[in-house]
Specification:
The structure holds 2 protein chains of 2 kinds. By secondary structure, chain A is α+β, with helices and mostly antiparallel strands. Chain A has 1 helix and 9 strands; from the N terminus they run αβββββββββ. Chain A has a 5-stranded mixed β-sheet with strand order 3-9-8-5-6, with no helix packed on it. In chain A, strands 2-1-4-7 form a 4-stranded mixed β-sheet, with no helix packed on it. Chain A is globular, with a radius of gyration of 18 Å. The N and C termini of chain A lie far apart (39 Å). By secondary structure, chain B is mostly helical. The chains are: A alpha+beta, B mainly alpha.
C-alpha cells in the first residue's frame, strides 16, 4: 500500500516537473515603439517576457475576453513576464502607444 | 612696381578676392539650400497618403453594407428621443464633428468632451478621446447605448428597426439575403460607412507631390517649423498627422482621460489621444475640452508648454516661437484642408 502511495506521489511529482519543464518562455522586445513580433503561438502555461529596450516608458495590456491583463507602467530597461493560462486569441497592445501590438495565439 | 601698375594690381587683387569670396559664399549657400531641400524631401516622404482604405477581414467592404451604414448613420431613430443620429455630433457640415466645445446628448445634456471628428477613422488604432474602444465596430454601438448620449438599449433598437420593412430589405442586401437585424450587423454597417469617410487631397498633398506652388512661402516655413523647432511632428506625425498615442498636453481641466482606464501609468493621467489634423481649420473649437477657439490659440498653448505636472508629456516644452513663426504654423495647418465633394443625404426607410 505504502509502496503504491510512494509510486503515485513520484508519478505526480514527475508530471508536475514535466509540465513545468515543458512550459516555455518567449522574449518579445519593445524597441522603436514596436514589438519585435506581430504574431506568436504559445502553449497554455507558456510565458512571454516583455523587454523594454526603448527610451520611453511602455505598457502591455489586453482587453480580449477572458484574457484581460495590464502590467502597468514599464520603464525602459526592464522586463516583465506574463503567463498565458488559457487557450484563445489574445490581442496585446501598449496603452500609451496603441500602434504597438502583437497577437498571441494560445493553444 | 610703378604707381599705376601698383594700383592696377590692388584693384585686380580686390576683384579676384571678392569674386572668390562670392563664389565660396554662393557655393556654401547652395550647399546649405540643397541640404535643406534634401531634408524637406525626406520629411515629405513621411506624409504620403495611402492608396486604399483598410477594411478588416471580418468586416470587408461592400457597397450595400456601406449604403445601409450610411442610412443608419443619418437616422435619428437610432436614439431614444428619435431626434439624434450619429450625424448630430459627427456632421459632414462640421468636418464630421459638431462645431461645439462639448458634445450634446439625450435631453440636451452637455457631455464631458468635444465630439471628435470621424474623418479618416478607418486608420485609427483605438477610438474615442480615451481610446476605450479597439475597433470602429465596438465604437459604433457605444454612443447609441450610452444613457447620456443616444440612450437607446440595443434590444429596443433592434425591435424598432425590425418593424421598418425598408430596413429589413437594406439588411438583406448587405448581409447575403439575411433580413434579420442584429446589433453586430448594425455595428458592421455603420463602421463600414465610417471607413469610407476620408479627407480628400489638400494643397499640402499637392505640394508633397511636387507642386511647388501649392503652398504659400509662409505655409512652407510652417512645415519646417512643424517638423523642427515647434516639435509638432513628435506626436502629429504621418499623413493623418497623429501617432495614435496618448499625451497629457497640460490643459487646465480635471478630466483624467486615458488615466481613468490605466490608473497605474502616471503619464496617462490627463492624457488624450492625439487628434489628426486633416481639415483642422474646419474643426474649431479645439482640444478634447473645446477650450481653445482658434488655431492661433492652439499654437499659443503649445508655445507656453502647458501646465507643469508629473503627467505632462515629455514632448511638451516651451517653444519660444516668434510672432511670424506662429503665423507660419497656422498657415501650414490651413493647407491641410481638402475641398471635398458635398455629402448627399439619404432617404430614410419608413
Amino acid at each position: 500500500m505504502i509502496e503504491k502511495m510512494i509510486a503515485a506521489t513520484m508519478i505526480g511529482a514527475w508530471l508536475v516537473i514535466s509540465a513545468a519543464a515543458a512550459a516555455d518562455e518567449i522574449v518579445i522586445t519593445q524597441k522603436g515603439k514596436v514589438f519585435s513580433e506581430k504574431k506568436v503561438t504559445l502553449q497554455v502555461g507558456d510565458t512571454i517576457s516583455f523587454v523594454n529596450d526603448d527610451e520611453s516608458t511602455h505598457n502591455v495590456y489586453s482587453r480580449s475576453k477572458g484574457h484581460k491583463f495590464d502590467i502597468g507602467a514599464q520603464r525602459p530597461g526592464t522586463a516583465i513576464s506574463h503567463q498565458f493560462n488559457k487557450a484563445g486569441k489574445v490581442k496585446v497592445r501598449c496603452a500609451i502607444h496603441p500602434r504597438m501590438k502583437v497577437t498571441v495565439f494560445v493553444e | 612696381m610703378n604707381g599705376p601698375s601698383l594700383k592696377f594690381a590692388i584693384v585686380l587683387g580686390c576683384i579676384l578676392g571678392f569674386s572668390a569670396y562670392s563664389l565660396a559664399e554662393s557655393s556654401s549657400n547652395q550647399a546649405e539650400r540643397k541640404g535643406k531641400d534634401d531634408q524637406v524631401v525626406v520629411l515629405k516622404a513621411g506624409y504620403e497618403r495611402p492608396t486604399e482604405i483598410p477594411f478588416p477581414e471580418d468586416n470587408p467592404f461592400s457597397a450595400a453594407k456601406a449604403e445601409l451604414g450610411k442610412t443608419l448613420y443619418f437616422d435619428p431613430r437610432l436614439s431614444r428621443s428619435n431626434m439624434q443620429s450619429c450625424a448630430s455630433c459627427h456632421s459632414p457640415s462640421f468636418a464630421w464633428g459638431d462645431g461645439l466645445a462639448k458634445g450634446v446628448g439625450d435631453h440636451m445634456h452637455e457631455l464631458g468632451r468635444r465630439s471628435p471628428t470621424i474623418l479618416n477613422a478607418a486608420w485609427s488604432e483605438v477610438l474615442m478621446w480615451d481610446g476605450r474602444f479597439d475597433t470602429l465596430e465596438e465604437q459604433a454601438l457605444g454612443p447609441i447605448e450610452a444613457d447620456v448620449e443616444m440612450n437607446m438599449p440595443l434590444d429596443e433598437l433592434i425591435a424598432k428597426l425590425s418593424k421598418i420593412e425598408g430596413y429589413r430589405e437594406l439588411f438583406a442586401a448587405a448581409f447575403q439575403g439575411d433580413r434579420d437585424i442584429t446589433a453586430d450587423k448594425i455595428a458592421m454597417a455603420i463602421a463600414t460607412y465610417e471607413r469610407t469617410i476620408v479627407s480628400g487631397e489638400a494643397p499640402f498633398d499637392r505640394w508633397v507631390n511636387a507642386d511647388r506652388q501649392a503652398l504659400s512661402t509662409s505655409a512652407e516655413r510652417g512645415f519646417e517649423l512643424f517638423n523642427g523647432k515647434a516639435r509638432c511632428a513628435a506626436c502629429h506625425s504621418g499623413w493623418r498627422f497623429t501617432d495614435d498615442s496618448f499625451h497629457d498636453i497640460g490643459l487646465a481641466d480635471d478630466d483624467l482621460g486615458r488615466g481613468t482606464e490605466f490608473p497605474g501609468i502616471l503619464k496617462m493621467q490627463h492624457a488624450f489621444k492625439t487628434p489628426g489634423l486633416r481639415n483642422i481649420d474646419q474643426r474649431a473649437p479645439y482640444m478634447h475640452d473645446g477650450s481653445l477657439a482658434t488655431l492661433a490659440e492652439v499654437v499659443e498653448h503649445y508655445d507656453g508648454g502647458g501646465i507643469r505636472r508629473p503627467s505632462l508629456s515629455d514632448e511638451m516644452k516651451p517653444l519660444d516661437l516668434t510672432k511670424q513663426e506662429k503665423r507660419d504654423l497656422v498657415a501650414f495647418m490651413e493647407s491641410l484642408t481638402s475641398d471635398d465633394e458635398p455629402v448627399t443625404y439619404v432617404q430614410l426607410p419608413r
